[in-house]
């Protein structure tokens, strides 16, 4: 395939591996187990809760350390 300068290669579609459901369930909120864990808890650095559960989280549900700061993350 010959590409012109500044031309992007075509997007290749692929089938997700069979273990993808197990991976995605490991990214679920440890509190409600319904929404994705997108909130980073500090100082322990666990990505453990969703944005709704983070509002009432005082202890990390993974390690039980006190939460001092919560950061919203974006996972691409």
Please tell me about this protein's structure:
The protein has 76 residues and is α+β, with helices and mostly antiparallel strands. The chain has a domain at 20-72: Herpes Virus-1 (2-Layer Sandwich). It is built from two helices and three strands. Strands 2-1-3 form a three-stranded antiparallel sheet. A hairpin with a 3-residue loop joins strand 1 and strand 2. The protein is elongated and about 55 Å long. The two termini are 29 Å apart. The model has no long low-confidence stretch (mean pLDDT 82). Residues 29-64 form the RING-type domain.
Name a few traits of the molecule.
Herpes Virus-1; alpha+beta; single chain; zinc-finger; 3 strands; three-stranded antiparallel β-sheet; 76 residues; zinc ion binding; 14% helix
Helices and strands: which structural class? alpha+beta
Question: Considering DSSP H and I runs of 4 or more, what fraction of the residues is helical?
Answer: 10-25%
The CATH architecture assignment of the domain at 20-72 turns out to be 2-Layer Sandwich
Strand order of the largest sheet: 2-1-3
The gyration radius over C-alpha positions equals: 18 Å
Distance from N terminus to C terminus (CA atoms, Å) equals 29 Å
Tell me the fraction of residues in β-strands, as a range: 15-25%
The chain-level mean pLDDT equals: 82
**Assigned CATH superfamily of the domain at 20-72:** Zinc/RING finger domain, C3HC4 (zinc finger)
CATH topology of the domain at 20-72: Herpes Virus-1
Number of strands: 3
Q: Looking at the structure, what is the overall shape?
A: elongated
**Number of helical regions:** 2
CATH class of the domain at 20-72: Alpha Beta
One letter per element, helices H and strands E, the order comes to: HEEHE
- The poorly predicted ranges are none
Largest sheet: 3 strands, antiparallel
Organism: Dreissena polymorpha
Keywords: Metal-binding, Zinc, Zinc-finger
Domain RING-type: 29-64
Protein name: RING-type domain-containing protein
């Amino acid at each position: 395939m010959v590409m012109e300068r500044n031309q992007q290669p075509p997007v290749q579609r692929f089938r997700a591996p069979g273990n993808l459901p197990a991976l995605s369930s490991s990214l679920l909120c440890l509190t409600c187990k319904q929404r994705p864990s997108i909130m980073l808890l500090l100082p322990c650095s666990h990505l453990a809760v969703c944005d709704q559960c983070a509002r009432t989280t005082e202890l990390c549900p993974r390690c039980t350390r006190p939460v001092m700061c919560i950061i919203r993350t974006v996972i691409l």
